[in-house]
């Protein structure tokens, strides 16, 4: 009975919020692309980010959106939020419950 009281609610787990941030950002990007409301970003030509988006690997593998900025942000959010979220979810499923709750 005491073990049940110490469990973390599903929505308050760190990996759920991490994946949620990534999904929410993708919904915002899709909405912006379909409605045509795209923030007026500075031109990234000639900068480090411009060289990244102009590389052949980036143009072939990361073409989720027409806007280069959204593709770059998707890659960034995927590395920062999605990868740790998936790792946390896998750990939560694979590891025993006693390790997840700290007891």
Could you characterize the architecture of this molecule?
This protein has 103 residues and is an all-alpha fold. It is 69% helix and 0% strand. It has helices at residues 2-5, 14-35, 48-54, 56-61, 68-94, 97-101.
List the helices and strands and how they pair.
Elements: H1 2-5, H2 14-35, H3 48-54, H4 56-61, H5 68-94, H6 97-101
**Main sheet record:** none
- Cα radius of gyration in angstroms: 19 Å
In round numbers, the mean pLDDT is 83
Number of strands: 0
In one word, what is the shape? elongated
Distance between the termini: 13 Å
Instruction: Tell me the strand percentage band.
Output: under 5%
**How much helicity do the residues have?**
55-70%
**Which stretches of 5+ consecutive residues score pLDDT under 50?**
none
Secondary-structure element string: HHHHHH
Distinct helical segment count = 6
Helix/strand-derived class?
mainly alpha
Features:
103 residues, mainly alpha, 0% strand
In short:
With 103 residues, the chain is mainly alpha-helical.
């Amino acid at each position: 009975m005491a073990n049940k009281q110490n469990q973390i609610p599903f929505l308050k787990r760190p990996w759920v919020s991490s994946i949620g941030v990534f999904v929410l950002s993708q919904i915002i990007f899709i909405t912006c692309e379909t409605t045509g409301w795209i923030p007026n970003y500075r031109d990234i030509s000639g900068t480090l980010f411009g060289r990244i988006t102009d590389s052949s690997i980036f143009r072939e593998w990361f073409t989720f959106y027409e806007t280069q900025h959204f593709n770059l942000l998707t890659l960034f959010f995927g590395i920062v939020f999605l990868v740790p979220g998936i790792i946390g979810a896998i750990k939560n499923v694979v590891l025993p419950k006693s390790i997840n709750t700290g007891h």
